[in-house]
Design goal:
Helices cover 78% and strands 0% of the residues. With 209 residues, the protein is mostly helical.
């Protein structure tokens, strides 16, 4: 794509030679490298190079004539311009409609489940973290009491009593099943005949069942 020398010199296409020269001198002075410092100096050199190139073409009548002709050849037809303009207008209207829809409904329904799930997971994580901290503090406190010689007695709940009852019942059922095995029954009977303590234990078991 050809450079637009008129834009570089910041002048109109119909500018007179005097205006072209004045614009060149003003910009050349503004972007002279000797007046710049640091990184701006290198950038100014590039800009001044373009300014000199533009002035070299526009200050020469013959070069300027060829350059103006190239601009005409590179321009698009009115029909093509109107087509591009209509396409841009359609795109602009579509973007405007999307923006208005977003403002009217900033939180679409299709995005709500993911948002709710994310929020729910965050709350669950924070709750679990808080519970873990409480349990860690409680365990550390109980261990400190044990280290000092205190005997820890836990208050049993109904669930604890129910658990103990079922454990005792399961133990009794296991012993009863074992008692039905002849080998095991004869073994304990021999011990019963030889030891008073075992006799007492067996007597208690018989009374229970």
């Amino acid at each position: 794509m050809n450079k637009n020398y008129y834009e570089i010199l910041q002048i109109d296409k119909n500018a007179s030679p005097e205006i072209i020269e004045k614009a060149y001198k003003t910009l050349a002075k503004k972007y002279h490298p000797d007046l710049q410092t640091g990184e701006n100096k290198k950038q100014a050199e590039e800009i001044l190079k373009q300014i000199n190139e533009a002035y070299d073409v526009l200050s020469d009548p013959e070069k300027k004539e060829h350059y103006d002709a190239s601009l005409v050849n590179n321009s698009i037809s009115e029909e093509k311009f109107n087509e591009i303009y209509q396409e841009n207008q359609m795109l602009k209207n579509k973007i405007t409609h999307m923006q208005q829809t977003k403002q009217a409904n900033p939180n679409p329904v299709r995005n709500q489940p993911a948002s709710n799930i994310s929020h729910k997971n965050q709350n669950t994580y924070e709750q679990e973290l808080q519970n873990a901290r409480k349990q860690a503090y409680r365990d550390a406190y109980i261990q400190d009491l044990k280290n000092r010689g205190y005997k820890i007695r836990y208050k049993k709940s109904f669930k604890d009593y129910l658990k103990s009852f079922f454990s005792l019942l399961l133990t009794a059922l296991i012993l009863l099943l074992l008692w039905q095995i002849p080998l095991i029954r004869n073994f304990f009977m021999n011990l019963y005949n030889q030891n008073i303590v075992i006799k007492s234990l067996v007597s208690i078991i018989r009374n229970l069942f």
